[in-house]
Amino acid sequence: MTETVLISGANRGIGLALAKRFADGGFRVLAACRNPAAFANDNPHITPVGLDVTSAESVMELAAELQDETISILVNNAGVTDKESSLGDMNYDKWIEAFAVNAVAPFRVAEAFLPQLKKAKTPKIITVTSMMGSLLRSADGYHAYRTSKAAANKMMQLLALDLEKDGIIACPVHPGWVKTDMGGLRAEITPEDSADGLFTLITGLKQEDSGRFWQWNGEEHPW
Ligand SMILES: NC(=O)c1ccc[n+]([C@@H]2O[C@H](COP(=O)([O-])OP(=O)(O)OC[C@H]3O[C@@H](n4cnc5c(N)ncnc54)[C@H](OP(=O)(O)O)[C@@H]3O)[C@@H](O)[C@H]2O)c1
């Protein structure tokens, strides 16, 4: 039977490349984005659906709309960054927004879609976090982004513990430094490279891999 993957922020960047890669890999893709009507799509395996991950109402509406679905994989990919976020240059509203999108929303979306995930044979919840949230790195700047991704990593570790009894695999992943609107032109890899590596990683994850921090190339990332 064809498996279904739900991907947030699937209209551009890494999310769009992931949607295409999962469709090429034989999955049915629910491509969640804020404006599904504007999602240019001629791929019969990709269905755009509406989701603003910071809106509780939007999350609940989509979960209700998709209540009869069986979802094998949820990829929390939607994310935001902000350059104005260091000592003396902190935009506090943007910091709160970064936490809302990058750390809180993946938990809310995961919780909302648990019924659909629990119907799958080997359900997986993946959140695209970042090496920039690793506590072992001492690079500076991007305080809002780094702290929100560190929180997302911890949240995914907790989710893995919460869901172990249900056989649901939960992992944070670093997608590489990727040439997108967020990653910029100087980034190291294309969205397609990242999506290809993430597809192989995600589809191969086993229960013993749950609660660990992975990178797009299949290597484990230090916390
Ligand atoms: N690029 C990199 O080098 C890199 C490295 C490490 C981690 N990451 C992570 O990878 C993920 C994807 O990044 P990207 O490089 O593809 O970024 P991007 O090109 O800026 O795309 C961000 C995506 O997130 C969506 N989004 C933002 N806020 C949202 C909300 N409230 N509800 C729904 N969707 C929302 C955007 O939708 P709209 O089009 O509606 O704004 C867009 O689809 C992010 O979590 C990012 O932090 C990226």
Structure description:
The chain has one domain (4-215): Rossmann fold (3-Layer(aba) Sandwich), CATH 3.40.50.720. Helix content is 37%, strand content 15%. It has helices at residues 13-24, 56-65, 92-112, 114-118, 143-163, 191-204, and strands at residues 4-8, 28-33, 46-50, 73-76, 124-128, 169-174, 214-215. Strands 3-2-1-4-5-6-7 form a 7-stranded parallel beta sheet, with helices on both faces. It is globular, with a radius of gyration of 16 Å. The relative contact order is 0.15. The mean pLDDT is 97. Residues 8-9, 11-15, 33-34, 51-54, 77-80, 101, 128, 130, 174-175, 177-178, 180-183, 187 line the site of NADP nicotinamide-adenine-dinucleotide phosphate.
> Approximately how much helix is present in the residues?
25-40%
The largest sheet is:
7 strands, parallel
Q: Could you say which overall geometry the principal axes of the C-alpha atoms support?
A: globular
Unique ligands: NADP nicotinamide-adenine-dinucleotide phosphate
Q: Name the beta content range.
A: 5-15%
Number of domains: 1
Indicate the CATH class.
Alpha Beta
Task: Report the end-to-end length measured between terminal Cα atoms.
Answer: 36 Å
Order of helices and strands: EHEEHEHHEHEHE
What structural category do the secondary elements indicate?
Answer: alpha/beta
- Can you count the beta strands? 7
Spatial extent as radius of gyration: 16 Å
Strands of the largest sheet, in order across it? 3-2-1-4-5-6-7
Low-pLDDT segments, ≥5 res: none
CATH architecture: 3-Layer(aba) Sandwich
- Chain-averaged pLDDT: 97
Q: Could you say what the CATH topology is called?
A: Rossmann fold
CATH superfamily: NAD(P)-binding Rossmann-like Domain
